[in-house]
C-alpha cells in the first residue's frame, strides 16, 4: 500500500493506472476506520482493479471548531486496517493540501433535499460535504466512488452534485453495517457509555418493530406511538420520519420505497440511522 499526502502525486498515479486500462474505485472517509468502512472497501475491492481510500477530517462540515477537533484521529490504526483490507493507495492530506491558502470556492446545493433533516439541524454540513467530496473526486479520478447508505441523505446530495456538475462518476451505495444489537457502526459510537449503548440498541429495536408493522401503520400512528416510546428510552430525538427514496419526500410506510429515518442524541453522542421499510439494500432501486 502506498500512502500519499500530495494531491498531485496521487492524481498522477491514478491517471497512470487509468491510462494502463485499470479500473479504480474510491472510498472517501474521515478515518477512525471500523467494519462499516471495511464493507465499502470490500465492495470497491471486488468491483475494481485498484482501491483508493482517503482519510481526512473535514473541519468545515462540523458545527464548530471544537467538534472537528474532538473527532477521533488514529492514523496508525487506520493505516493497518487499510493495509489488511487490501487498499492500494491511501490518501492522507493535511488541511493545507485540501484548503490551500487563498482557497475561496465553496460548492453550494440549494435543493429542498439540503433544506431538510440533516441540513436543517447541521447548517454547515452539506456545503462542507459537497465541497470536500468535490475536491476529493477531482484529486482522485476514480471511475467508481462508494458511499454508505448509513448517510443516506448525504449520498443523495452527492449524487445530485455529480448530476448537476456533469461529473461522470458512478456512485455506489453500500448497505449499513450494524453490530450484534443492530446499532449502526459509527466512528462516534466509541464515545457511548453503557447507558448510551443501551439507548442505541433500544432505538434500533423500535425501528425494527416499525419495519415489521410497516404495512399496517399510518404516518400518524408512527409519530403518536413511537416518538414517545423512543423518548422514554432516554433518546433525545431530533427527527423521526418516513421518507420516499430517492426524493426524500414524506412517504406512507407501506410505500415500497419508504425509508424510516431518525437522528438524535444518546447522552453526548449524536446517532443517525435509517432503515428501508421493505428492502434490505436501497441499491436495488438505483
Ligand atoms: P465517515 O468516515 O463517517 O465520513 O464515513 C465514510 C463513509 O463510510 C461514508 O460513506 C459513510 O456512509 C460510510 N459508513 C460509515 N459507517 C457506516 C456503516 N455503519 N455502514 C455502512 N457505511 C458506513
Estimate what percentage of residues fall within beta strands.
Answer: 15-25%
Specify the CATH architecture of the largest domain: 3-Layer(aba) Sandwich
> Quick one: how many beta strands?
9
Query: Could you state the CATH homologous superfamily of the largest domain?
Result: HUPs
List keywords for this structure.
binds adenosine monophosphate, Pantoate--beta-alanine Ligase, Chain: A,domain 2, 10 helices, 286 residues, alpha/beta, 3-stranded antiparallel sheet, 19% strand, Rossmann fold, 6-stranded parallel sheet
Write the layout of secondary structure elements.
Elements: E1 2-4, H1 7-19, E2 24-29, H2 35-47, E3 50-55, H3 65-70, H4 75-84, E4 89-91, H5 95-98, H6 118-121, H7 125-139, E5 144-148, H8 152-164, E6 170-174, H9 194-212, H10 219-232, E7 236-244, E8 258-266, E9 269-276
Parallel strand pairs: 1-4, 2-3, 2-5, 3-4, 5-6
Antiparallel strand pairs: 7-8, 8-9
Architecture overview:
The protein is of the alpha/beta class. It folds into 2 domains: 173 residues, HUPs (Rossmann fold), CATH 3.40.50; 85 residues, Pantoate--beta-alanine Ligase, Chain: A,domain 2. Helix content is 39%, strand content 19%. It has 10 helices and 9 strands. The strands form 2 sheets. The chain has a 6-stranded parallel β-sheet, with helices on both faces. A 3-stranded antiparallel β-sheet has the order 7-8-9, with helices on one face. Strand 5, helix 8 and strand 6 form a beta-alpha-beta unit. The two termini are 32 Å apart.
Short description:
The chain is an alpha/beta fold and 286 residues long. Helix content is 39%, strand content 19%. The chain has helices at residues 7-19, 35-47, 65-70, 75-84, 95-98, 118-121, 125-139, 152-164, 194-212, 219-232, and strands at 2-4, 24-29, 50-55, 89-91, 144-148, 170-174, 236-244, 258-266, 269-276.
